[in-house]
Amino acid sequence: MPTLPESGWTLAQALSRSGLPGLEARMLAGHALGLSRVQLITQSDRVLDETESVRLGDLFSRRLAGEPIAYLVGEREFYGLHFATTPAVLIPRPETELLVELALARMPAQGSVLDMGTGSGAIAVALAHALPGLRVTALDASEEALAVARDNARRHAPQVEMLHSDWYAALAGRRFDLIVSNPPYIRAGDPHLSQGDLRFEPAGALTDHADGLSALRTIVAGAPSHLERGGWLLMEHGYDQAGEVRSLLTAQGFTEVQSWQDLAGIERVSGGRLAFD
Prior knowledge:
Elements: H1 11-16, H2 22-33, H3 37-42, H4 50-64, H5 69-73, E1 75-78, E2 81-84, H6 97-106, E3 112-116, H7 122-130, E4 135-140, H8 143-156, E5 161-164, E6 176-181, H9 203-206, H10 214-222, E7 227-236, H11 242-251, E8 254-261, E9 267-274
Parallel strand pairs: 3-4, 3-6, 4-5, 6-7
Antiparallel strand pairs: 1-2, 7-9, 8-9
Binding site for S-adenosyl-L-methionine: 117-121, 140, 167, 182
InterPro entries: DNA_methylase_N6_adenine_CS, HemK-like, N5-glutamine_MTase, PrmC_N, RF_methyltr_PrmC, SAM-dependent_MTases_sf, Small_mtfrase_dom
Catalytic activity: L-glutaminyl-[peptide chain release factor] + S-adenosyl-L-methionine = N(5)-methyl-L-glutaminyl-[peptide chain release factor] + S-adenosyl-L-homocysteine + H(+)
């Protein structure tokens, strides 16, 4: 049974009795006490004072209740960068790095890219950081999410333009060489919404409260008015939605329509190219 740390315990005792996996306990301890991974080892006999034990006990309790590590420590690594992460935004996930890689492979070095529904800004900022000459615009309908995204842009890629917009609403007359998006795509009522980290993440960034495809439909339908000819549209989607997303793209007249698998072998991203004529 887990036991919360008490004043007078050593750091090693607190970690071993936390009831958490070792890595999680060490991450929380490092955050609570301001210690590096090496210091957690070299200071394992450190005796916790009352303030430290209370702080550490609070983090352990919240994690045992299921609260995501990323929210507890306030950041998550994505594409080699550390992103501020709060309950206002989705937690950046490794599978979304595929979207960044695909975009970089199709993006002119001096081109322009639009990230729709940017959340923490992870995709937009990662692209701008990787290609400093890139003109990156990111938008979100949530002001709270944009505040987090702006903080991350200041940290890693201050050239990113951030817009408050409900999808294409604020983009009249503007076109881009590439559009990327990781929109809400989980179907209403999906049991995953009440499991794991998803219980704590913003519902509006996870689900469209419908069939899981409404945001994807909106993005595909509006893309031809905001893409340069020959430009790519790339979208992340659910594990079982690739076929439906390809059909949406084909019906809208996109060419070179295809899907790409993530490291788990799941078709995670689908996209197409706007015809030149």
